[in-house]
Design brief:
rod-shaped, mainly alpha, two-stranded antiparallel sheet, 94 residues
Length: 94
Amino acid sequence: MNNQPTYWTMRNGKSISIDDMDLNHLRNTLKMIVNNSNKHKDKIEKEAYWKKQNEKVFLNGDMANEFNENHLSHKDDDRFDEFYDNAPYSLNFP
């Protein structure tokens, strides 16, 4: 094993040699590492679950497929043309 000291950076930004940590500090550090590991694992599992759920999305029926194929994007949406035509200000910028 390496004889060089290993340092732990505390919450306040100070570094401390792991060899100099008291038993309670070591316990708390280990608990923090385990908790963070579990949180990370949970996050990865949730992301994998939602990714799998999104892969399962499919449309049923002719109406749903027709809507999906023919629906205008937000760039092509002309629902507000009448509002823009009657606007008291110009939307044409120089």
